[in-house]
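User: For my dataset I need records formatted as: sequence, then structure tokens, nothing else. Please produce one.
Assistant:
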Amino acid sequence: MVCKECCARQRLPPLACDPLFHGPASPCVLVPTRAGLTAGSAGTVIICPGGNYEFLSPLEGQPVVDWLAASGIASVVLRYRLLPRFSIEDSLDDLEQAVRCVRQMRSGPVAAIGFSAGGHLIASLGLRANGALLDGQCLIYPAVVIRRDDCDFHNRTGRSGFPSRAQALLRGNDALMGGPGFAAPPTFMVASTVDGCCAPAEHTDPYARELKARGIPCKYLRRDFGDHGFGLEGGWTEACVKWLRARGFGRRLPS
């Protein structure tokens, strides 16, 4: 995923060679060059970094690869297309194609883990695919619903042409809150009670209730993990690995 020189110097690559910051108009499944595709193990997790659909956070890319690899679970990182040039439908196309590519690359189940906007993207794929494309989803401080004022980019930035694509994010709100079209695969979800951006009462609580009402397996961790963007901190990762392993991820393949 990054050059060997950068890997030797630091945990994260500098922007000059971080693929999450280059080629934003070119969606790509980034196969890590260190750890990543754990040899001899089943299943793959597709990592979807957050970033408000405007950028991709490096803290939700390579560190997540390293964490999963240390647990014997293979992963790839998705560089999906972003606003303002592209729409949610383009981002969903990228994730859907990534799932199909990973299934061709490796054996075993396929799940996706998304942070913030990446969580919204994965949950939205559940709607599009009627919950059937992924074997599981991990939503970490996800923005399950998009507020209308979040899409009022024109007033805040003055960039013409931006609002129409941003407002397309609103289309799935009713379904994600349990309206017609709600669908999801088995879900692991993490929310912080002090999240000032994606408060559980507005985002994850209603989603968790709907999963339970429909009999969709859900593991929901809800406590003070810190403010939005806590990444791998807070003590949720061990439970996530346990959840993934119970679904066949990291299982050793016959030699």
